[in-house]
Backbone:
């Protein structure tokens, strides 16, 4: 009995070691296909093959992930890896060529500045969706609408009590995002028109779920969220009397929105191009994009350039 | 008389504090289990997660956690054993040894986020391994290794000197003495220590955010060829572990039942750690009994 | 190290040469293996230091940030038109959370270890010890999750402020470092020579007198070692703290006001910045500070251990 247990353990150990040996051998073999990430395009036959990596924005990741799975189910010769890591990471990786698609919440020119400006020029922008943001408050503050000036006063600390903007007598608690956040950049640029301040006593969270939780629980809290995160636990306020809705964004009435970008280094080819085309197809735009709470790019009646100039399409 | 009263009071305080600690632990575990157990079902444990719909599971995450643990252990155990053997048997009491001891100590107190960043910089970007299970395993190795070294060293030192001398006196080489005389005696405590260390690996998240990634590509559980992309066994795919999944779902979850999934996943994680602890004790005891009785 | 070799070469019997050669080969292989493992350890730690330093020093060397500004500056505004990198608020946040956590955890941990060694060793071993080991095994994300759903709301209702802040972080951390402090304290108390205690009891001292006058003073350096290691762990903890501390880059006015630690700002911003940008490199500088702090903590532990040995 005693001996047999011992024997069993020895056997298991030996097996583990053996597995170790064989696994190492396998590692060597599998390294090449997954790493090379080559795009051996085969357009002649009509179908494409190849493998590539799309990395970057965590806000865009659910969409790219879902669409890539659908696409791979249709084209079994294509293999796509989606890696979240943040817009900054995605842009630097695509510019360095370590990944084939860099997902970003902001224009590359806004992230790759100064010394890196050259890198931004080599990147080609593919706008695949629009994400809109709304200012959200705790349910108790008693405010339905905020003007641009009021928002600026709140987010720069000039107004610290809700009664000054028409609400009840309660201290304002800011739930901002960290200075590096793309969501914050969009909100500052299109809702405030100015930089907000990292005020003492304000809360900063990068993650939308945490922002929602804190705003819903903290009395007097205000923050901002992408439309897909809105629910009953918080209150979305109107901006200059306009409700944050997909229709108002599409018609250009509601200005606080940004493109979701997928950048490639140079014009895309082969499998990457085919995938990006699929991303922009009506099937995906009217299906997955809308389903996941983004706004379809083909619905937009206005367009915007990197400097924020809006024009009719 | 007065000294006696003080003695009684202080004993009361110490017992009180101890009860408080146990109460905190019981409250913590109770809170997690009460909130989480309701959501644990066969379906929850084995189905893939959902992005926006309710009813997602944690199947791939659970598998990833276990697979990553195995990968990490495959790298760590041989290296840790080797370095541990060096520290207890080969190291001479000189400056070099003191230096190596210092290194082990520093390595074991590195913040996991620093290890994760190092992994991002070197393993993920420089070696071009990308966000993958393998990168994650290497990062975890970095801070599991010192633990393993210490466990091995202490276990080997716990072996009575006579046994070692007997081996050497029999004309065995030193290496042979270590592997066939010292190791069998030291194994129970090495196994216990290793399993406890494994529990730590299982719950690690900060280092993995930057190395194994936060995405979980759909896995094809009928394809066990490690070379295929959708194969669960492919070590070069990005993988989200259970601990990272809890972090992500808490912070970015879009699904309407995100809070419940986080609670359920936390409960699963705690239960697993509990099993590791109990398993380590049980196995250590059993091994000890078998090995000491049969010797 | 030469012992077995000299022994086998001293063995004169000629028919055993084959065996000796085998011995040598075996021994040589074993030795090569363990030396390789140790070499790897050294390589790992050097590469960590070199790589993080190479990134973390860039802002000071070539991007015009002064070390003084980084260490004593009060304003952290990395994305402004003229970016400012003052990391003092993060240093204050890190130090205050980990010190307060130690202040909470140290008395608790030491009490628990006295309970386990002096008062009820049996119950201690069968109930308390497994309980504490379990605390050590609970993953940090789970602590953060519980902190955000239980401790933050509790503090928000009990004290003025938003609940998040240094106090919330310190409470979460104190539970996390309790096992470290307890296990080291228990080891120290157990290794105390029995004669010391028995002498005290023989002189008619009560248990508490023995604990307070003999046991605690003699084991003090070892107890402090545990506390310092606990602080080191608290200092480096990232996710649990980030979830409950609020992350405003300012020195807070109270313990219940949003603050930031070194680890939490790194977790928040690393993915959002591009490689090579000044902001990104400044975050690596913060990681370098964390690294240097680790060395400092190990150094303090070393000093304490030397005192343990002397006494």
Residues:
């Amino acid at each position: 009995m005693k001996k047999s247990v011992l024997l069993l353990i020895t056997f298991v150990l030996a097996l583990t070691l053996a597995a170790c040996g064989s696994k190492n051998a396998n590692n060597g073999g599998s390294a090449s296909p997954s790493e090379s990430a080559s795009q051996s395009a085969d357009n002649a036959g009509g179908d494409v093959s190849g493998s590539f990596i799309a990395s970057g924005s965590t806000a865009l990741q659910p969409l790219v992930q879902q669409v890539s799975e659908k696409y791979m189910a249709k084209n079994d010769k294509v293999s796509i890896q989606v890696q979240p890591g943040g817009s900054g990471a995605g842009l630097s990786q695509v510019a360095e060529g370590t990944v084939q698609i860099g997902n970003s919440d902001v224009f590359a020119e806004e992230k790759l500045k100064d010394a890196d400006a050259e890198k931004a020029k080599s990147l080609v922008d593919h706008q695949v969706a629009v994400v809109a943001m709304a200012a959200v408050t705790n349910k108790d503050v008693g405010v339905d609408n905020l003007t641009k000036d009021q928002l600026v006063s709140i987010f720069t600390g000039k107004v610290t009590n809700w009664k000054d903007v028409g609400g009840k007598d309660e201290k304002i608690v800011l739930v901002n995002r960290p200075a590096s956040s793309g969501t914050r950049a969009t909100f500052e640029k299109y809702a405030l028109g100015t930089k907000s301040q990292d005020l003492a006593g304000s809360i900063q969270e990068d993650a939308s779920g945490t922002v929602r939780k804190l705003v819903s629980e903290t009395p007097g809290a205000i923050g901002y969220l992408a439309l897909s995160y809105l629910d009953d636990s918080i209150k979305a306020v109107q901006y200059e009397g306009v409700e944050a809705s997909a229709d108002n964004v599409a018609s250009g009435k509601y200005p606080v929105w940004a493109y979701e970008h997928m950048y490639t280094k140079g014009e895309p080819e082969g499998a990457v191009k085919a995938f990006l085309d699929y991303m922009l197809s009506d099937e995906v735009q009217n299906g997955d994009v809308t389903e996941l709470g983004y706004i379809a790019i083909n619905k937009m009646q206005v367009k915007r350039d990197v400097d924020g100039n809006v024009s009719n399409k | 008389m007065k000294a006696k009263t003080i003695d009684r009071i202080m004993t009361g305080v110490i017992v009180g504090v101890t009860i408080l600690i146990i109460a905190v632990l019981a409250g913590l575990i109770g809170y997690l289990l009460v909130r989480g157990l309701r959501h644990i079902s066969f379906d929850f444990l084995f189905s893939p997660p959902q992005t926006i719909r309710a009813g997602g599971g944690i199947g791939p995450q659970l598998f990833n956690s276990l697979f990553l643990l195995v990968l990490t252990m495959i790298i760590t155990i041989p290296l840790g054993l080797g370095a541990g053997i060096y520290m207890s048997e080969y190291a001479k009491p000189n400056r070099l040894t003191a230096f190596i001891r210092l290194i082990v100590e520093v390595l074991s107190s590195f913040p996991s986020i620093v290890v994760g960043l190092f992994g991002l910089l070197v393993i993920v970007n420089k070696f071009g391994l990308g966000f993958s299970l393998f990168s994650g395993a290497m990062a975890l190795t970095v801070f599991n290794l010192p633990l393993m070294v210490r466990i091995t060293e202490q276990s080997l030192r716990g072996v009575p000197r006579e046994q070692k001398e007997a081996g050497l006196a029999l004309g065995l080489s030193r290496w042979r003495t270590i592997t066939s005389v010292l190791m069998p005696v030291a194994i129970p405590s090495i196994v216990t220590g290793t399993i406890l260390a494994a529990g730590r690996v299982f719950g690690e998240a900060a280092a993995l955010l930057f190395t194994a990634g936060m995405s979980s590509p759909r896995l094809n559980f009928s394809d066990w060829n490690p070379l295929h992309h959708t194969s669960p066994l492919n070590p070069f795919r990005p993988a989200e572990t259970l601990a990272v999944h809890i972090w992500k779902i808490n912070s970015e979850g879009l699904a309407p039942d995100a809070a419940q999934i986080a609670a359920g996943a936390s409960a699963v994680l705690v239960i697993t750690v509990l099993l590791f602890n109990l398993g380590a004790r049980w196995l250590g005891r059993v091994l000890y009994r078998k090995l000491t009785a049969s010797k | 190290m030469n012992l077995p070799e000299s022994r086998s070469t001293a063995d004169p019997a000629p028919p055993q040469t084959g065996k000796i050669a085998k011995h040598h080969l075996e021994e040589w292989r074993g030795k090569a293996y363990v030396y390789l493992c140790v070499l790897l350890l050294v390589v790992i730690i050097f590469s960590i230091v070199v790589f993080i330093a190479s990134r973390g020093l860039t802002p000071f060397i070539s991007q015009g940030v002064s070390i003084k500004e980084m260490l004593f500056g009060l304003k952290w505004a990395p994305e402004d038109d003229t970016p400012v990198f003052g990391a003092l608020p993060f240093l204050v946040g890190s130090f205050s959370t980990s010190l307060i956590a130690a202040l909470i955890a140290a008395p608790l941990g030491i009490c628990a270890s006295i309970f386990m060694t002096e008062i009820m060793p049996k119950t201690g071993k069968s109930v308390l010890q497994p309980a504490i080991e379990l605390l050590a095994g609970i993953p940090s994300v789970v602590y953060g999750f519980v902190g955000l759903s239980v401790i933050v709301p509790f503090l928000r209702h009990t004290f003025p402020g938003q609940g998040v802040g240094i106090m919330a972080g310190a409470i979460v951390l104190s539970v996390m470092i309790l096992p470290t402090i307890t296990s080291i304290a228990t080891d120290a108390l157990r290794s105390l020579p029995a004669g010391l205690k028995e002498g005290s009891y023989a002189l008619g001292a009560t248990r508490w007198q023995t604990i307070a006058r003999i046991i605690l003073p003699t084991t003090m350096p070892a107890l402090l070692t545990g506390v310092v290691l606990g602080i080191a762990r608290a200092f480096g903890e990232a996710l649990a703290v980030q979830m409950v501390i609020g992350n405003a880059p300012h020195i807070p006015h109270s313990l219940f006001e949003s603050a930031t630690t070194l680890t939490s700002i790194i977790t928040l911003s690393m993915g959002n910045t591009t490689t090579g940008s000044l902001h990104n490199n400044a975050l690596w500088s913060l990681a370098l500070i964390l690294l240097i702090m680790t060395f400092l903590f190990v150094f303090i532990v070393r000093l304490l251990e030397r005192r343990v040995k002397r006494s």
